[in-house]
């Protein structure tokens, strides 16, 4: 087995689309052989690296590429194997059969991957899963700054491989983030936590301190994984999924998720932040009096405005316009029009 079989498997899957749920086939293959204790993918997760790993397994090439669904882990494994070549090293010369990693956000953290299937001069043809929600090809210049580097699988001589750079001690470091760490990877975690509603008063400062540790633990609790405060492979895969799907429209996901996170952050609840309105969400909503203020009041204003009950600017202050909007909503729902957002009013706002 080698490159020929791997390429044939990618060709077989070419054209698979999320719209037809064909990405689920690849995800299921990946999950069937994922490393023990590693993250089990859901059918809504990004599936670019799962494509690389599943294709290797399904073609009889297990162990020749990193067996992971997370791009930064794939890079670390190639580094540990001594098979990683960075974009700006002297050895950089991508060829057919190499696994190429991208950095869309230019933050030195890889967020996409594919397999080079052809090279014509300086133009690479890369076959990628999860490109435009399907498995298809991309053409990209070999010198594109979006490329962070590539890994060289041992296809058994099927492709010619240049000598890989020897990984430094820094490159083979642990794969999780912890208190005391600093840099772009920490800032990436912080930005994503903030974006999905977790409180970091100091902002995304790139320093893994107590605030980040606490936010990571709360996130881990909410998604039902080990609560150790460490941002490891499973935690970051879950975080990436939550971040990438944070604006999904189903079940008022964006607004409900932010409400759940705000109620958790202020100590009114300890619920899972899943964007799905239910009994736990309702139970965690505090009563908002006629002079309430803060982030939860702001979320109530946003919801009322979206439903057509004008509260004016969603500024987190329960003033005259907000009171008028609340009372109009309560009257329309057959509730006492007292301007107090109690459990019955929250229930109506949540659509329960």
TrEMBL record:
Q: Which domain of life is it from?
A: Bacteria
Listed Gene3D superfamilies: PGBD-like superfamily/PGBD
- Record SUPFAM superfamilies: Cysteine proteinases, PGBD-like
Q: Which InterPro entries match?
A: Papain-like_cys_pep_sf, Peptidoglycan-bd-like, PGBD-like_sf, PGBDSf
Provide the Peptidoglycan binding-like domain boundaries.
Answer: 183-239, 296-349
Protein name from the UniProt record:
Murein L,D-transpeptidase
Q: Lineage of the source organism?
A: Bacteria, Bacillati, Bacillota, Clostridia, Lachnospirales
